[in-house]
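Suppose you are handed only these lines of text.
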Amino acid sequence: MTGRKILIFVVLVVGAMVAVVWSSGLGTATGPILISILLSVFFVLISVGTTTEIYQDFIEAISTKSSLKKAACRFYLYGRGGSGKTTLIKTWLGGEVRPEQSTKYFAHYISEKYIDLETKRRCRVIISDYQGQSPSQNTLNASPQVIGQPGKRLVNVVFFIVDIAPRIEKNGQPLNSEELIDWLAVDTEAKVRKRVEQQLEYLVPAILEIVFATIYSSNLLGVKLIINKMDLLETVVAMGCIPGVSLANVNDYARNLFKRVEYSIQDAYENITNPEHQIEFSVELVSAAKGTGVAQIFNEALKQYATVYGKDIKS
Ligand SMILES: Nc1nc2c(ncn2[C@@H]2O[C@H](COP(=O)(O)OP(=O)(O)O)[C@@H](O)[C@H]2O)c(=O)[nH]1
Ligand SMILES: [Mg+2]
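From them, the structure of the protein bound to guanosine-5'-diphosphate can be written out as follows.
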């Protein structure tokens, strides 16, 4: 919005100056007429600009392009549709940060976050997201402005997001959490296992090899496997829906479900990384919808980024 107002102001001032200079060189009779015509044209342009999205889109396109060139901690998210990528991003950034669409399916968010509240140091962040189900939307067709050009990739952190319950729809609408719990409370173990199988299919070694071949560079600092929707799992476990699993061991249960993926991810980046390049790996349990654990995973990655690229960060 500010950019748009500045553009309108600059166009108006420059236009008026050009009109005055030009008309003063053309003699006294034509001068005032030309000024009136030119000012009328500018007023029309301004009215169009203020009542339509034309200038705004233009300004946003320019500012997004230049923002993407600046140093930032770049997060790359990979996960099956419905696993909670968008919810995770929105929970951390807050609802007011809107996504920018780079391609039909590939989007990114730009924001600025505190690295630590004590020093109030801030860091720019860019987070990628994609809307489809297809891994190629996030690899072959990922925007080079977001993830960096081939050979000069800029991704610092990769989040692989999995979940323990699918998105279920009734009459075209997703079930709310209560309805989802009612659905999950019956035959829970089989439903969880089915969802885990779907996640394992999406994160097979062959695909992981492509993911890392796409985004890997020496800029990569951290990789996290994020197990989402722990609120749902904890609720059904508290209801006694999974024999042998209680709130005391639900975290181990969740981690064990995804052990295979955990090892496949580690194998995939170890195969591409040279031995001196240390990448921090962790498995995290979160609830993107409730916000549990969300700030922690992003902040941890930001701190790591700040340690390496501290000189690029504002105070
Ligand atoms: N209960 C619960 N629902 C979640 C959680 N995260 C996401 N969802 C829901 O799962 C569905 C898919 O989430 P979304 O963020 O759109 O997934 P995406 O396709 O990976 O971007 C939505 O209906 C979310 O409200 C969570 O932590 N707990
Ligand atoms: Mg999404």
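What can we learn from it? The two ends are 25 Å apart (CA to CA). Residues 4 and 56 are 6 Å apart (CA to CA).
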